[in-house]
Design brief:
Layout (H helix, E strand, L loop, with lengths): L9 H9 L8 H8 L6 H13 L5 H11 L3
Length: 72
């Protein structure tokens, strides 16, 4: 697996560290675990807007959106 270097503020670093499930979990795993995976930014915005408006979605649409958030 290839890696990339990123710069984080101390506050961002501390927040990520607090989300670790245990001492051995990497920050990469934390990010993959807590961030949803969408096919596009438009899809992420659409999901956010529906949630914000309180719109209800079908079970099929909910399953599709949830499957996008799962890490491969």
């Amino acid at each position: 697996m290839t890696t990339k270097a990123v710069n984080l503020s101390e506050e961002a670093y501390n927040r990520l560290n607090k989300l670790k499930l245990n001492e051995k979990e990497s920050l990469s795993n934390v990010i993959l675990r807590v961030t949803p995976r969408f096919k596009s930014s438009d899809e992420a915005i659409e999901a956010y807007e529906k949630k914000r408006k309180g719109d209800y979605i079908s079970d099929e649409e909910a399953e599709r959106i949830l499957s996008l958030g799962k890490n491969e």
